[in-house]
């Protein structure tokens, strides 16, 4: 089975905007929260992949759950922002947004080099 680079380095560029799994949202908060836009196909796929990797169903990924996926295992420490040795769906979303931004910067730099335009410094 092929897991896209977006699940922790690839659980989806689309994850940056995805909603957390239902189990991660307390019932009270879900009831009082305003209605959210429907999930995109990419967000649904990313959530399904997260749940697939969450073998014990606790709503977070452990090192042992991602050990069979070297890219995910290598990115684990970067994604585990609270350093609890688990990666929650929210942490995956943040990591995916960071990964997407880095990838977009690299693409923009490559396009500038290819076009001969000098890079713009921030």
TrEMBL record:
Domain of life: Bacteria
Keywords annotated in UniProt: Signal
Pfam families recorded: EF-hand_5
EF-hand domain ranges (all copies): 41-76
InterPro entries: EF-hand-dom_pair, EF_Hand_1_Ca_BS, EF_hand_dom
Gene Ontology molecular function, alphabetical: calcium ion binding
Chain residue ranges for the region called Disordered: 103-122
First and last residue of the signal peptide: 1-18
Residue stretches in coiled coil: none
Protein name as it appears in the record: EF hand
Organism: Acidovorax soli
Lineage, uppermost ranks: Bacteria, Pseudomonadati, Pseudomonadota, Betaproteobacteria, Burkholderiales
